[in-house]
Specification:
homodimer, three-stranded antiparallel beta sheet, about 15% strand, DNA-binding
DNA sequence: CGTTATACATCATATCACGAAGTATTGTTT
DNA sequence: AAACAATACTTCGTGATATGATGTATAACG
C-alpha cells in the first residue's frame, strides 16, 4: 500500500489492536500485519506517539522472565477510533469523486 | 479531516479533478474543495510532484490576457487512479478491522 | 485609484514511516 | 556448550510532504 495512504491508517490500526484487550509490541505487529504492513521501528514510534497523546497507557509486566510493556487504550483512544469512523464517511465521498466515470456527452 | 489521512488522498483527488478535462490551479482548488480542503501552496506543490512523476503534463496558454498553466493527465496518472481503486479494497478491510465491535463473550 | 479575485511561486517548519543497527533474554538445534 | 532463531524493545538518520506565510502580477469592479 502507498506509504502516504498508510499514514492516516496506522495509528487507528494500532488502537484497534488493543481495543478489546491489552497487548504488547510484538503481538500488535502480528495482529495488524494481515491488514497493513508495519515494522518494529514504525510500531514503537507509533506507540510512543499515542502514549504522548494520551490515547493509551502503559504498564510493564513480567512474562516468562522477560519484561513486556502492555498497552491499554484510554477514552481518548476510543474517541480517536470513533472520529476515524466519521472520517471514513468523508473518504467514501472522496472515493466516489475519484472513481467516478466521465458521463460527459451522454449519447455517443 | 486528519492531516495524515489527507496525505494519501490529495494526489488522486487532483488527478481526478483533471481526469475528464484539462484544468488549471485555481479551478482545481475549487473543484476539489467540496471533497477535501487544500490550500494553494499545497496544490502547487502537488502539481509539481505529479508533473515530475509523469502523471500529468503541462501546457501554458493565454486566457484573458493572463497566462494559465493547463494540466493534462497522462496514462501514468490514469493508472495511479486505478491503483487507488485497488488500494481502496485494502482500506475497506482495514476499516472493518478498526470499526469491528468486540463480540468477545457472546451471550451476556 | 483602491480593493478584490484570479493565478502562480517559494520557503521554512513540523510530522512521520522506515531501514539499519543495537541490546538482551529465552528456547532450540547441533 | 556453542550456535542460532525467536521474542521484545530502543534509537538514529533520512526522505517525503502538507501547510502557513509571503511574494509577484494582472484583470475586474466600484
Amino acid at each position: 500500500m502507498d506509504i502516504q495512504l498508510k499514514r492516516g491508517l496506522l495509528d487507528v490500526c494500532v488502537l484497534a489492536a488493543i481495543k478489546n484487550e491489552d497487548s504488547y509490541g510484538y503481538k500488535i505487529i502480528k495482529d495488524v500485519k494481515p491488514y497493513i504492513e508495519l515494522s518494529e521501528s514504525t510500531l514503537y514510534t507509533i506507540l510512543k506517539r499515542l502514549e504522548a497523546a494520551d490515547m493509551l497507557s502503559v504498564r510493564t509486566a513480567e512474562h516468562g522472565g522477560r519484561l513486556r510493556k502492555y498497552y491499554h487504550i484510554t477514552d481518548k483512544g476510543l474517541r480517536r477510533i470513533e472520529d476515524f469512523k466519521d472520517e471514513w464517511k468523508e473518504m467514501l465521498s472522496i472515493y466516489r469523486f475519484v472513481s467516478k466515470e466521465d458521463e460527459g456527452n451522454g449519447q455517443a
